[in-house]
Amino acid sequence: MNKWQKITLIILISILIVFIIKKLLPDEKINLIKDIKRLKEAVESEDERMVFNYLDTDYLDQHNLDFEGLKSKIAEFFNVADSINIMISGLKVWIDSLTTNNYVYAHCSLGIRVIARYENERVLVFGGVIQPATVKGYFRKQKNYYKIYWAEY
Q: pLDDT tens across 107-150, in order?
């Protein structure tokens, strides 16, 4: 192979890689957004099993709340709330990396406001009255779901 053929081959391979990445990453962003919306719907319908599908067993947050602690808080919240409504705004998604063991790592930032009804009284559970609270979530795709493994709120 001469010098120009090698350069042409490298350019073609580079174009192919860029094309594959541009096709793959938007699909993964869409998948993560769908999973975030499904998680929101699962919380609103108080479906514990579905909520836990989206939580990694290695979950930890900046307040040192781990998976078992979060699971307990969610169960307690579902027991006392008559209804839950979550508002999401400003959702931004980034795909961070694709690993050799087929994990996809991603993160998102969004604003969240959670309102629940307790004994016919509407209560702001999370987020501000004027603005939603800023949340940053880190996800790892495992099997069919993006599971949250770290959160900042």
A: 999 999 999 999 889 999 999 988 999 999 999 998 888 999 99
CA distance 84 to 66: 23
CA distance linking residue 29 with residue 94, whole number of Å: 7
Show the tokens assigned to 103. Answer: 């994990």
Q: 109 and 33 in contact (C-beta within 8 Å)? A: no
Residue 137 neighbours by CB distance under 10 Å: 23
**pLDDT digit string (tens) for 57-70?**
999 999 999 999 99
φ/ψ bin of 109: left (φ > 0), alpha (ψ from -120 to 50), beta (otherwise): beta
Give the global pTM.
0.80
